[in-house]
Amino acid sequence: MGRYGPDAATAREEMLKVYPRKTQRKRGKQMLVNENPATPAEIGANSRTVPGIITQRGCSYAGCKGVVIGPIYDILHITHGPIGCGWYSWLSRRNITKIRADGEVNFLQYSMSTDMQEDHIVFGGEKQLAAAIQEAYDEFHPKAISVYATCPVGLIGDDIHTVCRQMKEKLGINIFGFSCEGYKGVSQSAGHHIANNGVFKHMIGLDDSPVEAKYKINILGEYNIGGDAWEIDRVLKLCGIHIIGTLSGGVSYDEICNCHMADLNVVMCHRSINYMAEMMEEKFGIPWFKVNFIGLEGTKKSLRKIAQYFGDKELIDRVEEVIAAEMAEVRPVLDDIRTRTTGKTAALFVGGSRAHHYQDLFNDMDMQVIAAGYEFAHRDDYEGRDVLPHIKIDADSRNIEELVVTADETRFDAAKPEKKKALEESGFTFSDYEGMMRQMAKDTLVIDDISHHEMEKLIEMYHPDVIGSGIKDKYVIEKMGVPCKQLHSYDYGGPYAGFKGAANFYKDIDRMTSTKVWKLARAPWHEGGSAPAAEKEPATAGA
Ligand code: CFM
């Protein structure tokens, strides 16, 4: 037994034990002990979930409509499919937004669907789609309409792109479609890529209006969950840095069409948007680097790196002033909370970037992350971007179009790559991402696409003080006597980004891990009431 439970290798064996041999082999590759954090081992990632295993993953449509494009607030988003897909993607992600100028509209509270019926499946649904676009246009007169294909649309072969093109000509507004059928990939990750391609083809670069600001950037891969983008914007504004577009959180169609006017792209969520960063660099010359505004260290480092990129003494000094002022506020909160959180443990299983980013916040609180994993990330998100050339392309990845992007003849700004090269020579890193495993402690557990069975075993063996996860397993975890912080939706909390966000997070985690209520959680079928592991031996917790 280690300090907190069995050693990671034993725990891994225990989790794998019940599976049939073939499943054991596959899951075994996706569950690693982080033996050499500096040179992470190869993890099995972005492969199909074994049927029958309860996964936390979503579908390609969710990644495209729900994650990347859905948050653009003044586009009308129409789901072409049976009503369920539209219904379940209706406001179920907390990518909040607000109107910032007179005359603006916010369509995010609506859910539009073609409500496909059996006869559309038999005879085709293209007419229905054209009618839905017309109806939506007549009702709302939006600047743009986007259409999302769901599974049956791909199966029956409706040509949504032709319908969109015809309606675009007829109505004179931008209308475009996404072939993001749920089955298009092994998870929502495929939908991210499809969405990136579509945003790049149909929006980026449409508006060349100059932007009057000294330091202009875009934040890529920030979706304003619980108001994160607003906190990042607040801090950057204090520094004098202007955000043209946040893709895609609290963002308008016009901002996206104009965001190629930026000097720099910084990437928050590498998984969902690294394609866009690369394509914008190829077409317009805009360099990118990875940032992380989750956690105090990450926030400070990211601000300093942006300032360093621009290289102006005035900006560099201003950033230091902002950091000092913000830290003076958050420091006492952290100091107080650390007296209660130090030495506590956490496990994080989230999406494709948060299981990594949030480790910084737990580190701030002096808590130990004993196990972590993504739902749908790729090897580069675990092991670092340098493994990209070694990732095997399988049939599932081949399903998704790779756009061939070349430099824009008139708008490629050659000064930017030159600046990038000069900075690189002085040790500045661009186009890089180190991945989760390098940052995790030696001999911790890394589990890709964790199953419910594995989660239960993990709790029985380690009984962490808190688990960061999502709605699909929140109540399973809590019934086992462990508090679960939803790191997708933040439950009802947030923002958690930046300085004020960090303070919010410390307070929420402190409350969740200090309350005695979890020790009272006792399932009625535990005769005689066996208390959870915090009080007794771990194995009684979920048995
Ligand atoms: Fe990126 Fe996200 Fe995430 Fe993601 Fe998501 Fe999300 Fe997530 Mo839920 S884009 S990969 S597909 S950071 S919705 S805002 S929380 S799984 S870790």
TrEMBL record:
Its EC number is 1.18.6.1. The keyword Iron applies. It comes from the Bacteria. Residues 59-511 form the Nitrogenase/oxidoreductase component domain. Keywords: ATP-binding, Iron, Iron-sulfur, Metal-binding, Molybdenum, Nitrogen fixation, Nucleotide-binding, Oxidoreductase. SUPFAM superfamilies: Helical backbone' metal receptor. Its cofactor is [7Fe-Mo-9S-C-homocitryl] cluster; [8Fe-7S] cluster. PROSITE patterns: NITROGENASE_1_1, NITROGENASE_1_2. One of its GO terms (cellular component) is molybdenum-iron nitrogenase complex. One of its GO terms (molecular function) is metal ion binding. It catalyses: N2 + 8 reduced [2Fe-2S]-[ferredoxin] + 16 ATP + 16 H2O = H2 + 8 oxidized [2Fe-2S]-[ferredoxin] + 2 NH4(+) + 16 ADP + 16 phosphate + 6 H(+). InterPro entries: Nase/OxRdtase_comp1, Nase_comp1_asu, Nase_comp1_CS, Nase_Mo-Fe_asu. It holds the Pfam family Oxidored_nitro. This molybdenum-iron protein is part of the nitrogenase complex that catalyzes the key enzymatic reactions in nitrogen fixation. Belongs to the NifD/NifK/NifE/NifN family. Tetramer of two alpha and two beta chains. Forms complex with the iron protein (nitrogenase component 2). This is Nitrogenase protein alpha chain. It comes from Ruficoccus amylovorans.
